[in-house]
């Protein structure tokens, strides 16, 4: 492909993208294909000779698109959306075109310096104190793993990377039983092990916060047994039901026990750009050693873009920094963000934040979040009013859960039937040993009508089930 052809197809794909987004409401939210249907249409071997771009695009439409679940669909109420506001997509087009590997300051000074500025813009937007720094990661999973590795090294007096974990004792990480599975995986990968991730129950009702009295007791028991407490992971907005810990209480325990702290605020952290939510969810946040939130969720940045704030980056640098001769930089002191993260290679993720925040302003982003919270409350009440339905957990910001009449199997049949219908997309979950249905509002361009339609769809399909 020459650059004239690139320009032609670039314009074609930009027009295709605009049409795709303006017609999303006409498509089923979730892919309607059977397992293996897409793979069966692909040739068993690669082509030996070039193929025309128009044929490739035609096959993209014919083969790929029927197998795509539409995460940007305004009636996507499953999981939590990976959003993609138009300005952030345009920024990604520029990043893809420049195709820089931004691992060091000198490999693209603008990427490093814009990243530093965007971290500080977001620090201010979320009400974090001056002096907090941070880094852009690919996902909350990577940020959490970085924090767990830092907990490990700190607890072993920085000997783990050098000597391994043999003879270091059983390191223990503490969290509530509402944490995301990425916490478990971080403990696997860090060599701490599932059995040493200690999950504590939550206080009934409210925001289902970690029971800090039980936490204190468990830490004392572990120390008495010769184990090595290493850190505490708190949550603001758990994936299942939105569970949110009382941060000041968690910090009180951590300070008394000299433990490193990490806060997972992956989806709910974005809501903290709205000052009115901070009293209930954010008090004490300034005391955490590490905080992660995903602008690629509720804030609208194109996936992937996760921000990890660090009260003192030195401890994470001491854990992750490795500097062979070929990566050393001479001259004035600079920031090399690859030393703050697990991957060496880094994309210019900060550009989409710069475009996004400038294009909407914080006020525009706040309006969307406030609308989503309000609409979640409205649709929750509409579902509560349906005959035989039960709200299992009330809205925490924009997420709640409910049950239809019937047993666990019938809940799953309802989820499957709703998703097969195609007008909306929802997912199931478990709470206190029973299956329930999760519902969240967070797609960047959804409207109140999109949200309220969900109650009608759920009602009508439930009536058809045996």
Topology, element by element:
Layout: H1 3-22, H2 53-64, H3 86-98, H4 109-125, E1 133-137, H5 140-155, H6 160-163, E2 171-176, H7 181-189, E3 197-200, H8 212-224, E4 228-235, H9 247-257, E5 260-264, H10 278-281, E6 290-293, H11 295-299, E7 306-310, H12 314-320, H13 350-384, E8 390-396, E9 399-403, H14 408-421, E10 427-431, E11 434-440, H15 448-462
Helix pairs in contact: 3-13, 4-13, 5-7, 5-12, 8-9, 13-15, 14-15
Throw out a few tags for this protein:
466 residues, Aspartate Aminotransferase, domain 2, seven-stranded mixed β-sheet, 11 strands, 42% helix
| Uncertain stretches of 5 or more adjacent residues | none
The total count of strands amounts to 11
Supply the CATH architecture of the domain at 101-347. 3-Layer(aba) Sandwich
Approximate helicity band: 40-55%
The biggest beta sheet reads: 7 strands, mixed
- Please, what is the average pLDDT? 94
Can you list the strand order of the major beta sheet?
1-7-6-5-4-2-3
CATH-wise, what's the superfamily of the domain at 101-347? Type I PLP-dependent aspartate aminotransferase-like (Major domain)
Task: Report the principal-axis shape.
Answer: globular
What is the helix/strand order? HHHHEHHEHEHEHEHEHEHHEEHEEH
Tell me the span between the first and last alpha carbons. Answer: 56 Å
What Rg is obtained from the alpha carbons, in whole angstroms? Answer: 24 Å
């Amino acid at each position: 492909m020459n650059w004239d052809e690139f320009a032609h197809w670039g314009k074609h794909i930009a027009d295709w993208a605009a049409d795709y987004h303006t017609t999303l409401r006409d498509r089923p939210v979730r892919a309607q294909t059977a397992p293996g249907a897409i793979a069966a249409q692909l040739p068993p071997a690669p082509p030996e000779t070039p193929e025309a771009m128009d044929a490739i695009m035609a096959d993209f439409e014919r083969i790929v698109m029927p197998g795509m679940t539409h995460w940007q669909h305004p009636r996507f109420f499953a999981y939590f959306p990976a959003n993609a506001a138009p300005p952030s997509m345009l920024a990604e087009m520029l990043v893809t075109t420049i195709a820089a590997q931004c691992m060091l300051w000198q490999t693209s000074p603008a990427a490093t310096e814009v990243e530093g500025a965007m971290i500080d813009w977001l620090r201010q937007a979320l009400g974090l104190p001056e002096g907090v720094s941070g880094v852009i990661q690919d996902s909350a999973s990577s940020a959490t793993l970085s924090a767990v590795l830092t907990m490990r090294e700190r607890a072993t007096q920085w000997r783990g990377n050098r000597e391994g974990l043999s003879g270091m004792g059983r390191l223990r990480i503490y969290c509530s039983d509402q944490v995301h599975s990425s916490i478990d995986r971080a403990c696997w990968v860090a060599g701490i092990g599932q059995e040493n991730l200690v999950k504590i129950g939550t206080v009934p009702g409210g925001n289902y916060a970690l029971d800090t009295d039980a936490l204190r007791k468990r830490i004392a028991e572990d120390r008495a047994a010769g184990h090595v407490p290493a850190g505490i992971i708190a949550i603001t907005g758990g994936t299942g039901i939105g569970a949110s810990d009382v941060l000041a209480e968690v910090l009180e325990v951590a300070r008394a026990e000299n433990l490193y702290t990490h806060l997972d605020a992956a989806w709910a952290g974005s809501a903290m750009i709205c000052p009115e939510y901070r009293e209930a969810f954010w008090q004490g946040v300034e005391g955490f050693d590490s905080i992660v939130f995903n602008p690629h969720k509720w804030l609208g940045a194109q996936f992937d873009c996760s921000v990890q704030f660090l009260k003192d980056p030195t401890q994470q640098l001491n854990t992750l920094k490795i500097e062979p001769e070929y990566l050393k930089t001479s001259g004035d002191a600079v920031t090399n963000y690859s030393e703050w993260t697990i991957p060496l290679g880094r994309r210019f993720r900060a550009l989409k934040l710069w475009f996004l925040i400038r294009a909407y302003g914080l006020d525009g982003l706040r309006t969307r979040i406030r609308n989503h919270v309000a609409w979640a409350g409205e649709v929750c009440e509409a579902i509560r009013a349906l005959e035989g339905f039960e709200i299992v957990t009330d809205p925490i910001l924009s997420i709640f859960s409910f049950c239809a009449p019937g047993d666990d199997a019938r809940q799953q049949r309802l989820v499957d039937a709703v998703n097969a219908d195609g007008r909306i997309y929802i997912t199931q979950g478990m709470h206190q040993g029973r299956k329930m249905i999760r519902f969240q509002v967070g797609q960047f361009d959804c409207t109140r009508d999109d949200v309220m339609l969900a109650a009608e769809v759920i009602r009508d399909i439930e009536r058809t089930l045996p």
